[in-house]
Amino acid sequence: MKKSLPALHIADLTIDPPIIQGGMGVRVSRSGLAAAVANEGCVGVIAGVGLGKFENLPRSEYEQVNNDALRKEIRKAKSMSKGVIGVNLMVALSNYEPLIRTAVEEDVDLIISGAGLPLELPKYVTKKSIKLVPIVSSARAFKIICSKWKRNFSRLPNAVIVEGSKAGGHIGYDFQEVVEGKAPSLDELMIEILKVAKKFDPDIPVIAAGGVFDGKDIAHYLKLGASGVQMGTRFVCTDECDVHENFKQAYIDAGKDDFVIIKSPVGLPGRVIKSKFVEGIIEGQTMPKACNYRCLKTCNPKLAPYCIAKALTNAAEGNLEEGYVFAGSNAHRCTEIVSVKKLVHDLVEETKEYL
Asked: Distance (Å, rounded) from C-alpha 248 to C-alpha 252?
């Protein structure tokens, strides 16, 4: 198949087709998915949050077990692919710095970082070969990052991912804004951020994310000025996605009205698929817990109604009765589980039709 979409260039990396697979934690996007995506010319991404079997370990072991797990997943992905492998690391993680250092030691191609402003990221990444890509949800956040990085580290982002409110998982907007549909549209955000990105020489590539589902969407954002797109939801429903089959099936079974925005203990809204567990959370039930590890800087275990790490781990391992499934707003449109190869092929062909 001849690919005729414009390639995404992030410094000296060429990504063709111009698709980044979204990093999905906990334990959703690991080496199997990342390698398969990279083998199709896209960017395969390992989500660094909660990779190790940390649930019943004391805090003293939490950091090491997750470092070891990330190292193992990066090495495994690289052994299965010669393509572009990245990691997604959340600023909100209490072990953010150790995970960055591990990713640097393993010489990943790029580090994607959001869930907070990654203002200190370049401090830990002195290798210029590792590309740095922040995730933002406003032009203001992007300007702050560029200003701080340039002043403190003489460095700028190699690309920026602009994530709208239709994304799965934690959403970088006010809870009421998301629930009432008042958050800015991805189109609006893209237009604002493209203006900022074009002020640099060379331009900083802008990547659209959050609700990007098919070739029509990809073509739309490329026409709008995006250099590429990031997609998470579609890659869950693939053979190679590392998550439990029950998790994938939740996407297939979900209807349009089966999604709800919850207030996460992290302090951000999150889009999840409805379940008994989710109903309990909405009704104000609390789940007894003992937090040994404090995985998130923004979480106060004494005040949190339940442990989000445990809820996400349960779901990833297939126990949907005691956890919840994060999903993008278009997850109900997933109707089958296919190979990564078929998915990427179909996306490219659809995009060509609409360009």
From this structure: 7
CATH code where residue 192 lies? 3.20.20.70
Structure tokens belonging to residue 129: 């070969």
Average pLDDT over residues 289-317: 78
- Which pairs from 258-265 meet CB under 8 Å and 24+ separation? 258/332, 259/327, 259/329, 259/331, 259/332, 261/171, 261/175, 261/178, 261/179, 262/324, 263/175, 264/170, 264/308, 265/296, 265/299, 265/304, 265/305, 265/306, 265/307, 265/308
316 domain residue, yes or no:
no
User: Considering only 99-113, 148-162, 237-251, 311-325, which range has the smallest mean pLDDT?
Assistant: 311-325
Q: Is residue 141 part of a domain?
A: yes
Q: Is residue 4 situated within a structural domain?
A: no
Number of independent structural domains in the chain:
1
Q: What is the pTM of this model?
A: 0.94
Of 132-136, 225-229, 243-247, 324-328, where does mean pLDDT reach its minimum? Answer: 324-328
